[in-house]
Write a structure and sequence with these properties.
Number of strands of chain A: 31
Structural class of chain B: alpha+beta
Number of strands of chain B: 5
Largest sheet of chain A: 7 strands, mixed
CATH class of the largest domain in chain A: Alpha Beta
CATH architecture of the largest domain in chain A: 2-Layer Sandwich
CATH class of the largest domain in chain B: Alpha Beta
Oligomer: heterodimer
Bound molecules: FE2/S2 (inorganic) cluster
Radius of gyration of chain A: 27 Å
Signal peptide (chain A): 1-29
Pfam families (chain A): MoCoBD_1, MoCoBD_2
Keywords (chain A): Signal
Shape of chain B: globular
Strand content of chain A: 15-25%
CATH architecture of the largest domain in chain B: Roll
Largest interface: A-B, 61 and 61 residues
Domain Aldehyde oxidase/xanthine dehydrogenase a/b hammerhead (chain A): 207-285
Structural class of chain A: alpha+beta
CATH superfamily of the largest domain in chain B: Beta-grasp domain
InterPro entries (chain A): Ald_Oxase/Xan_DH_a/b (IPR000674), AldOxase/xan_DH_MoCoBD1 (IPR008274), AldOxase/xan_DH_MoCoBD2 (IPR046867), AldOxase/xan_DH_Mopterin-bd_sf (IPR037165), N-heterocyclic_Hydroxylase (IPR052516), OxRdtase_Mopterin-bd_su_IorB (IPR012368), TAT_signal (IPR006311)
Strand order of the largest sheet of chain A: 14-15-12-22-19-20-21
Number of helices of chain B: 6
Radius of gyration of chain B: 15 Å
Order of helices and strands of chain B: EEHEEEHHHHH
Distance between the termini of chain A: 66 Å
Number of domains of chain B: 2
Strand content of chain B: 5-15%
Shape of chain A: globular
Largest sheet of chain B: 5 strands, mixed
Distance between the termini of chain B: 29 Å
Number of helices of chain A: 18
Number of domains of chain A: 3
């Protein structure tokens, strides 16, 4: 084995002489990487293997949930290796410490980081492998490696006649040592990056052969369903066990930490038996909230506690007290469900002292912890196999469904598949938090002189750290898990990154205003929450960009013009704003009954401006067109960028038009797609996605389409009706 | 109880409760996992199959109602190794994101084209609007259907009298 390419790549010989490159993706300074300089310990993140049969395998440490990771990362390797991406087989990595995501420090896919964090090292890996193959060929031929070229999996002799397949060279190549940096292709020579490449997984998904979590099948497998407390935090005390066990096909029924499990030989038998389950619940610690009380609580907290100062420039209080005009507004956003198309599910098998899990999860590291939570196993005893995900959107970062399947499997010692119904998925979620925003601004004539933004509500990490902390401290004994979670919270910023989930997007307020204050009043009503596609940006985008629109109106200015003049120092913001406005023909007249709204928001490093054209028909909001201009740095696969941005737009529109989860005495009142509606095909607007040509490093695209569309739609409705809506979902 | 049905041209007999949804028979008794469970209530279309040539929500179709029927699932569209033109279009248009809804989308589109080989855009939207896609692939679905509209006259789904 040769250490190569600084310290983040290793070359070795795999089974039957294949060439294996193992690399660890370097993280940003504050987060651990695979290499520990003090100890010299080294763990790779990603494996690239080329064998003698010309088969190329890329083992992927990210999961695929529809955001194009599979295609995007493979394209990066393929480009520098100089092979068609379609020839590379991708495998999902089973969970192991070496598959950690460098920006986050755990193996999870979220935060739009996949392409951003892998951009450089994957290209370097591909380039290194290619260079070693070229050097090996040059040695065979006795020619100068600099004169050899490659073409789709072959090294070409300078004589223009001879060539060798990569497969013929792999056994020789691992002896080659590269000194110095590996040159990467200049942009002008890219064949695959930035081209309209297809999606590598499209065939499997169009023929029904892609294996999702729910499709996992094991010999002797049984089916489990779980009856959970209708109110979060309730615990099952007893149930009509004898009656259930006597039912046809029922194999087991028992109480778990999560509720009452019923197991049968088929899913339907388990479901039918579940209907007869009668549980005595202990509700002493259960959620008792009604949604109106949440907002009452927020208002009270907002008035009593000015909140943590998260950003401060100039003197906002003074600016406001001296201002010619003060504008105030309060915005409310509801709880939202993720509702991915594949309901939560997991398959677990406890055998030979270890637990195997198959699951559609965004965070297999955490899945290991969840799987051993209710047993004497430790995370090292758990293997998690990830599958395709039928959508994630943040929901599958929380591993409750794995915990359940594992708890049942631990009892039964046969393979168990546990599937949630859609109703269970809707009612036992972890939500995008409901939030309240209080905004105050001062205007001097048409000039915005002060901006005060008070964000009121919970933050996600409080709910997450209990689950995540043990994975960050893999050496910690299990009895410390709960303590670790608490410690993680106490030393926020040190043991865990600062939680910006409530304030992100608000602290990045881009407009040039002399006096700016952003505050967070932290209050948590106890409703379970988690990350939801675009997280804090999703609610801050609505508050900031709606308020900007209100201020433009108060200042008697066009909303585009009002923003533009405050962006002199923000060229990337300004550029997408101009382009979206121009493409949407901002300012030109529209047919009767239609109006436009505009919004601009940066999230996950990506700049997005959107213009929405909307109207009201037969008492329903109609969205006719959305024009988006996007700056996400270098583009790996434009089609995927387009899909992710337009998918984000529809996700945001769904929230703006329909999205609302409500609670009554702790119980969720929605249950399925009839009362938690998703946008349907006949409601879909024309979507235009304009991608800015850029040389900057690539940034995420899975989420940034979501935030601007919500205020842009609200602003269009205001332009149409003159009535400002300050709570979501919007009403016709 | 025993029921018999022909799925993708193959006859099967299954012994299940008479109220078992066709979806779970197809998936778990016959092992054809391409048909998906999304809502269990006829609201999303992920479970769409053809029953005697008509699109049906298999999650809400009890097995006793389809005893003896001819069923086509996503696996049956591409029998003999040849992809259905719609599947080909799905690949070249790069329609799927997470992909979970797409079997149902394709089955709905296949029925539309079998009956109306040259649908207008409005026809397509009207036929497809009950199939939800949380990832928002609708525009690419329309484009994919349009790309084969008019060219699938030769196609007859296996064993169907559509
Ligand atoms: S699963 Fe059958 S319509 Fe949704
Ligand atoms: S592609 Fe994900 S639900 Fe349609």
């Amino acid at each position: 084995m040769t250490m190569n390419r600084r310290d983040f790549m290793k070359v070795s010989t795999g089974a039957s002489g294949s060439l294996v490159l193992a690399l660890s993706l370097p993280g940003c300074a504050s987060v651990q990487t695979g290499f520990e300089p003090e100890t010299g310990e080294w763990t790779p993140d990603v494996w690239l293997e080329l064998n003698k049969q010309d088969e190329i395998t890329f083992t992927l440490a990210r999961v695929e949930m529809g955001q194009g990771t599979y295609t995007g990362l493979t394209t990066l390797i393929a480009e520098e290796l100089d092979v068609d991406p379609a020839r590379i087989q991708v495998k999902f990595a089973p969970v192991a410490p070496e598959y950690r995501n460098p920006f986050i420090g755990l193996q999870l896919t979220g935060g739009s980081t996949s392409v951003a964090s892998s951009w450089q090292p994957l290209r370097e890996a591909g380039a290194s492998a290619r260079l070693m193959l070229v050097m090996a060929a040059a040695r065979v031929w006795g020619v100068d490696a600099n004169n050899c070229r490659t073409d789709n999996g072959r090294v070409l002799h300078p004589n223009g006649v001879d060539s060798l397949r990569y497969g013929q060279l792999v056994e020789l190549a691992d002896k080659e040592v590269i000194r110095g940096d590996v040159p990467l292709k200049p942009r002008s020579e890219w064949k695959y990056i930035g081209k309209q490449a297809g999606k590598l997984d499209a065939r499997a998904k169009a023929t029904g052969t892609a294996v999702y979590g729910i499709d996992v099948e094991l010999p002797g497998m049984v089916y489990a369903v779980m009856t959970r407390s209708p109110r979060y935090g309730g615990r099952a005390q007893s149930f009509n066990r004898d009656e259930i066990l006597a039912m046809a096909g029922v194999q087991a029924a028992f109480i778990t930490e999560r509720g009452v499990a019923v197991v049968a030989g088929s899913y339907w038998k388990a479901r039918k038996a579940q209907q007869a389950v009668r549980v005595e619940w202990d509700f002493s610690e259960a959620l008792d909230t009604t949604v109106d009380e949440v907002f009452e609580g927020y208002r009270k907290a907002a008035s009593e506690d000015p909140g943590e100062q998260e950003r401060s420039e100039g003197g906002v209080d003074e600016a406001i007290s001296k201002a010619g005009r003060v504008v105030e507004a309060e915005y409310e956003q509801p709880y939202l469900a993720h509702a991915p198309m594949e309901p939560m599910n997991a398959t677990a098998w406890y055998h030979d002292g270890g637990m195997e899990i198959w699951a559609p999860t965004q965070a297999p590291d955490l899945g290991r912890i969840a799987a051993c939570r209710n047993s004497d196993l430790s995370p090292d005893d758990v293997t998690v196999h990830t599958t395709f995900l039928g959508g994630g959107f943040g929901r599958r970062l929380t591993q409750d469904y794995i915990e359940e399947a594992a708890a049942v499997a631990y009892e039964l010692k046969v393979p168990v598949k546990l599937i949630w119904s859609r109703e269970e998925d809707m009612r036992h979620g972890f939500w995008r938090p409901a939030m309240l925003h209080r905004m105050t601004a001062s205007l001097d004539g048409a000039d915005l002189t002060g901006w005060d933004h008070q964000i009121v509500g919970p933050q996600v990490l409080d709910w997450y750290v209990r689950n995540a902390a043990p994975a960050q401290y893999p050496w910690a004994p299990k009895f410390l898990y709960n303590t670790l979670g608490k410690v993680g919270l106490m030393v926020e910023g040190l043991a865990t990154p600062k939680d910006v989930s409530a304030i992100e997007g608000a602290i990045g307020y881009p407009y040039q205003v002399p006096n700016v204050s952003v505050r967070h009043t932290h209050t948590d009503p106890g409703v379970p929450i988690t990350w939801w596609r675009s997280v804090g940006y999703s609610h801050n985008g609505f508050a900031v960009e709606t308020f900007m629109d209100e201020l433009a109106h108060e200042a008697g200015q066009d909303p585009l013009e009002f923003r533009r003049k405050l962006l002199a120092r923000e060229p990337r913001h300004a550029r997408v704003l101009e382009r979206a406005a121009e493409l949407a023909q901002w300012g030109t007249s529209l047919p009767e009954g239609r109006a436009r709204g505009i919004a601009l928001f940066q999230s996950f490093g990506t700049y997005v401006a959107q213009v929405v054209e909307a109207g009201i028909e037969n008492g329903e909001i109609r969205v006719y067109k959305v024009t988006a201009s996007v700056d996400c740095g270098q583009v790996v696969n434009p089609r995927i960028v387009e899909d992710q941005i337009s998918g984000g737009i529809l996700f945001g529109l769904t929230a703006a038009l329909f999205g609302e989860i409500t609670f009554n005495k702790g119980e969720v009142q929605q249950s399925n797609f009839h009362d938690y509606r998703l946008l349907q095909m006949h409601q879909v607007p024309e979507v235009v996605v304009d991608i800015v040509d850029s040389d900057e490093a690539p940034t995420g695209v899975g989420e940034p389409g979501v935030p601007p569309v919500i205020p842009a739609l609200g602003n269009a409705l205001f332009a149409l009706t003159g009535k400002r809506q300050r709570r979501l979902p919007l009403a016709a | 109880m025993a029921f018999s049905l022909t799925v993708n041209g193959n006859r099967h007999t299954v012994d299940v409760d008479s109220d078992t949804p066709l979806l779970w028979v197809i998936r778990d008794e016959l092992g054809l996992k391409g048909t998906k469970f999304g809502c269990g209530a006829g609201l999303c279309g992920a479970c769409t199959v053809h029953v005697n040539g008509q699109p049906a929500r298999s999650c809400s179709t009890a097995i006793e109602l389809v005893d003896g029927a001819e069923i086509t699932t996503i696996e049956g569209l591409s029998e003999g190794g040849n992809l259905h033109p719609l599947q080909q279009a799905w690949i070249s248009e790069g329609v799927p994101q997470c992909g979970y809804c797409q079997s149902g989308q394709i089955m709905t589109a296949a029925h539309l084209l079998a009956n109306n080989p040259s649908p207008s855009r409005d026809d397509i939207v009207a036929a497809m609007t009950g199939n939800l896609c949380r990832c928002g692939t609708y525009a690419r679905i329309v484009a994919a259907v349009e790309s084969v509209a008019g060219s699938v006259g030769h196609y007859q789904p296996g064993q169907e009298g559509a």
